[in-house]
Amino acid sequence: MDVKKIIHVDMDAFYASVEQMDNPELRGKPLAVGGKSDRGVVAAASYEARKYGVRSAMPGKIAALKCPHLIFIKPRFERYKEISTQIRSIFLEYTDLVEPLSLDEAFLDVTIAKKGKPSATLIAKEIRDRIKSEVGLNASAGISYNKFLAKVASDLNKPNGQAVILPAEAESFLERLPIEKFYGVGEKTADKMKKFGIYTGHHLKQFSLQFLVKHFGKAGVHYHDIVRGIHLSEVKPDRIRKSISAENTFMEDLHGLEPIRMALEPILQDLKRRIERVEAKGRTITLKIKYNDFTVQTRSKSLTSFIPEEKYAEMIEELLNQAPIKQPVRLLGLGISNLNLSENQDYQLKIEYTDF
User: Which of 49, 166, 279, 327 is most buried, taking the most CB atoms under 10 A from its CB?
Assistant: First the structure.
């Protein structure tokens, strides 16, 4: 059986770290990249700010309450993109199989590396050292035989650390892992799982595929497989982006149109930032609504030409009014699809495993 060697590299507090690198006066201080206004959202928080409970996607007003001396900085996406390009050029010296997830993280398949040590663990360390010396930023890394485990591992020793999950260790590691640490299990899903007595991977493993699909839909198949160390997704370089989206799950359910409208404002701002980062345009806008009974509804509207930014709010209002919203809402999402991005052919090599 082919066993891959996958590295997940995740930059530490990327946007905030870039700002602190470029402006030494900000180093060691609690910093939020984003807005403080009523509609402002934190795009990234420095580790000094995180000590106060400030997190990305948090409304700026709440972040300011948690940390009164928090410094807000306007995002500079062109600068972040420039730094991201430098980092990716380092990745590409080791393998052509690089799958960026965003400006600050990527998967690398180094089963057969172009340079460096045969050990993926040593390659990850070398890449992190080069990012520090050549770019000036800290990165964390996870190493394993599939993308899911590499992603989980990269979070274990943050910031500025790395961890490896070997094939022989995977199942026992996952059995001990708290359920909220599983990549893809959000806060609300973790709460739902705990109602069934699922607190760790060991507990999750006791439930059948049929039970998980019944209570968690298609995601149940994913949960059933990952707790057994099964995740077959390949590292896809230059993957074709089909859509751009942003969403938020609420601590308390929303009742009525006006609270929903207010909640959609920061989600729309987040979506606009993501669209700006990749310089995309789309022809279709989609509103996603998850109700408190976990049923999901999507409403979409398309134009024959690319949607101008000034029409987003108008089209979202049309989608809201397509049909009455009669149930409490627990999640809202917005997405743009039918994008203008160029299409590149995906490919993946199949190679033999050596050692981690």
Answer: 49
CATH of span 1-165: 3.30.70.270
> Which CATH architecture is the domain 243-339 placed in?
2-Layer Sandwich (3.30)
HEC assignment per residue over 227-255: CCCCCCCCCCCCCCCCEEEEEEEEEEEEC
**CATH number of this structure's domain 170-226:** 1.10.150.20
pLDDT band at 277 (very low <50, low <70, confident <90, very high): confident
Q: Which of 245, 263, 246 is nearest to 255 (CA)?
A: 263
Is the CB of residue 296 less than 8 Å from the CB of residue 290? Answer: yes
Binding residues are 10, 104
Q: Which of 105, 126, 187, 252 is catalytic?
A: 105
For 133-151, the pLDDT digits (tens) are 999 999 999 999 999 999 9
pTM equals: 0.69
The count of residues in the chain is: 356
Residues at the annotated binding site for Mg(2+)? 10, 104
105 as an active site residue: the answer is yes
Q: Which residues pair with 243 in a beta bridge?
A: 337
